[in-house]
Design brief:
Number of domains: 2
Mean pLDDT: 94
Strand order of the largest sheet: 8-7-6-9-10-11-12
Distance between the termini: 9 Å
CATH architecture of the largest domain: 3-Layer(aba) Sandwich
Largest sheet: 7 strands, parallel
Shape: elongated
CATH superfamily of the largest domain: NAD(P)-binding Rossmann-like Domain
CATH topology of the largest domain: Rossmann fold
Low-confidence stretches: none
Number of helices: 12
Number of strands: 12
CATH class of the largest domain: Alpha Beta
Structural class: alpha/beta
Order of helices and strands: EHEHEHEHEHEHEHEHEHEHEHEH
Length: 303
């Protein structure tokens, strides 16, 4: 059991879990707003041995070095790699601090977002920015059936998007660090990145935060009259060649501004950005809450 467990910002856990957290600590303190400075974060942590935080707060070495009592950090958000984390994982480990995050809690909403926006694009459903009826991508409404789709990053989220599109009849190709046997069994074609970009009409990137694979040569391979989705948390591209590519007859879809990269890109008529995270659903918060609790339980059992 923790002597002092602190939730230093709005954790976005369901109310039932907030109540269960009390059983893990002699003292539980949950803040519901965001700290505004490093000094405020340090003050909130105080002498706590357990810290919980959302994706909105960053715990770097400067903060952790001032909080010597911390033994456990529970990230109530995704943890895929040290490079993409909002906690300095390597420094924390060097100080004997256990850091636990969660994975795969908001993917279902992302899949629904991709299907929804792709259907609207191909069929011309809805209205454009000026309130006029949208035009179907090819001039005449099309189905997803037979669509050549390339997935860049076939992890859990990318794999779920691929499976959903295959269900609707798409031809799936993918690029990843290596060929995956389960994808091969499903009939997905493993291609080099440039070959995938040149041979598919729709490209969907599903990469870890801060992973950039699209440079000038990749956009040249991608070419014109293409649809590009980014379902990651940050841009998968270099800004300059991306903006040059936007000047042609292409379409881009991102749910969040973070995935798009910069607010000025919203002025492009072929950029479609909801500025809302498609993974933030009722069910996602429930899955997140369950995994945060499980991490706490496993840590305490080992003490």
């Amino acid at each position: 059991m923790f002597k002092n467990l602190i939730g230093i910002d709005s954790l976005e856990l369901i109310p039932e879990v907030n109540r269960k957290l009390q059983s893990f600590a002699e003292t539980l303190t949950l803040f519901e707003d965001q700290p505004k400075s490093i000094a405020e974060i340090v003050a909130r942590i105080g002498d706590a041995d357990g810290v919980l935080l959302s994706h909105r707060t960053t715990l770097g070495q400067e903060i952790l070095s001032q909080c010597p009592t911390v033994k456990y950090i529970g990230m109530c958000c995704s943890l895929y790699s040290p490079e993409s984390a909002n906690v300095d994982i390597r420094y924390a480990h060097s100080q004997g601090i256990t850091v636990k995050g969660v994975r795969d809690y908001g993917d279902e909403g992302v899949v629904e977002y991709v299907i929804s926006e792709l259907v609207r694009c191909l069929h011309g459903f809805g209205k454009d920015a000026d309130g006029n009826p949208s035009q179907a991508w090819s001039g005449i409404p099309r189905e997803i059936t037979g669509l050549k789709v390339g997935i860049v990053g076939l992890g859990k989220s990318g794999g779920m998007v691929a499976d959903a599109l295959r269900f609707f009849g798409s031809e799936i190709s993918y690029f990843a660090r290596s060929e995956k046997e389960d994808a091969k069994a499903k009939g997905y074609q493993f291609l080099s990145l440039k070959k995938l970009l040149s041979e598919t009409e729709v490209v969907i990137t599903s990469l870890n935060k801060n992973t950039v694979l699209f440079h000038e040569a990749e956009f040249e391979a991608l070419g014109n009259r293409k649809i590009l989705f980014n379902t990651g948390l940050s841009p998968a591209w270099d800004p300059a060649p991306f903006e040059k590519w936007l000047e042609d007859e292409n379409a881009v879809y991102c749910d969040t501004l973070g995935a798009l990269g910069d607010e000025h890109l919203l002025t492009y008529p072929n950029v479609n950005c909801l500025q809302v995270s498609s993974g933030r659903t009722q069910q996602a918060f429930e899955r997140l809450s369950e995994k945060v609790l499980k991490n706490l339980e496993e840590y305490i059992k080992k003490q």
